[in-house]
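Page header: ASSEMBLY MODEL / two components / 638 residues total.
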Amino acid sequence: MRETAAIEVRELTMAYGGRIVMQDLSFQVRRGEIFVIMGGSGGGKSTLLKHLIGLKKPAGGAILFDGEDFGEAGEAARKGMLRRMGVLYQNGALWSGLTLAENVALPIEEYTELPPEAIAEVVSLKLALVGLRGFESYYPVEISGGMRKRAALARAVALDPEVLFFDEPSSGLDPITASRLDDLILQLRDSFGTTIVVVSHDLDSIFKIADRAVFLDIEQKTMTALGPPADLRENPPSEEVHRFLTRSGDAADRSVPDRTRERTPAS
Amino acid sequence: MRAEIRQDDHTLIAGLAGDWELENPTPRFDRLVEARAPGQPLRAVAFETAELGRWDSSLLTFLLQGMNYCEAHGLEFREEGLPENIAHLLALARAVPEKAAERQEPAASLLARLGTKGLSSFDAFLVSVAFVGEVAASLTRLLLRRVRLRWRDFWVVVQSNGSGALPIVTLISFLVGLIIAFLGAVVLRRFGAGYYVSYLVGYGMLREMGALMTGIIMSGRTGAAFAAELGSMKITEEIDAYETLGLSAVDHLVLPRVLGLFVMMPLLTIYAMFVGIIGGLLVSVTLLDLTATQFIGGLLTPVTLADGLLGVFKGTVFGLIIGIAGCMRGMQTGSDAGAVGRSATSAVVTGITLIIVANAIVDWLSALVGV
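Prediction written out in full:
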């Protein structure tokens, strides 16, 4: 096993326009682990994911993929890195004009010289792995939201990526389907040794799948916790992390104490 | 709805009675306080709610006014007299501090605003140039067989801009031919030159109106559709999915659309020219007592093949402009609910503006070279 981390984030600053969203983010994602980016709604989790997969450029700092700076890489090197990644978007983001088979086949066609029959076999295998055998000719609009996510997962793993990113995998799914998706994530890691990065605020899912997690604090505009979720719950480094991991109060909204009762009369 | 104000020592007591509902106008707290009889200086505000009936947000609004008044005047706001549920709601309403400070931006001077606008327009221009460059690079990759064209998308565009566009192109071109002929009939007949109406219709439709009207129609029809399709794909992250797989969204999505339109626009232009001339023929035969043979003879003698080819060339250029403008606006779509609509509108405006500009440039160049 290579010694470098799969992903290393060094003093990352994220900004929209001139407005800083998060800063001083530094952590490593180890090979073969399930790493969760957690925090309240609007806390910059999905923005961090977009930086990790190269959709947004850092305002400061660096993101290293397998020891190589993602932002500084040339086009060929960058394409090589993307070839080793897979992304499951929040709503699947399947290409609506293509059938499920075509969705899964497209990356394989682009990156390999396999003949069409061999591609068709790989596509069937990938769809079967996510429980969609027989749905090859369906269009995304013809299947349910949960099936779309599974089909998108089949596309994400089409090229057997080393790192898989999931953006809110359980959002919009009922608890049973969400739990099955969690099982699938665990299975992918255990079977293929895939490094998995998940953006989530679903505590059930976080405690079920995460080896380690980073907590993004929207008020502090930085990460305030890093480690196994169970450890963070036992020894929370901040009140915000404690509230988030124990569901005590809405951490995302940071409800402040009742100011009306704190106010003292002038007299 | 009643709020009776009285003063007990240094405390203002507001007796809230009746039903407080949004259907009725709510009294303003500050006016009630200021309208009270002069007395000792105030230190606190309290409430009595024994006679309070039904209430909704109107009462909460009134109480929040009271809280703000107390805060501004250094008075104690006593919640003890309020029902517990109202006190809780007030606490909830005041729980999250306003973030007004974060939104405060210094007012820029006129010069600074002009500069900012100029810079953003220049940035937008650079983005447009970069997009055109990307499409050109993608086309080069296609010619070098480094990318595969999505033929299905290409044929969908061809079909949509072929048989799908014929009815509207027929109608508009026919009417434009009619209009040119009407114009000619009125003006030329005064000089006894009614015979030359066929020249006017032929020359007008072949050199200018065939391509121009087809371009405007296709800009509204296809340019907007391209922007809406790609804009929706942007919002559903389908375009991001291409990028994160290291695939070019321009190769897969833009190229088939631009090429489809590029192929169909010259054909549609030729069709529009033909239909427009038919419209002109109809007017000439019915209004000017010309025969069809005279009309066609008057058309073929002065109008040359170069006039027709110039129109077809313009149509081809317009096809490229519409395709690129529509796809560019689609790819630039934002993430809010109205973004797709704005992109579609912008695609039409950009397309039509550029078509008119391109038409003028081609006319100027053709005059220079004597075509």
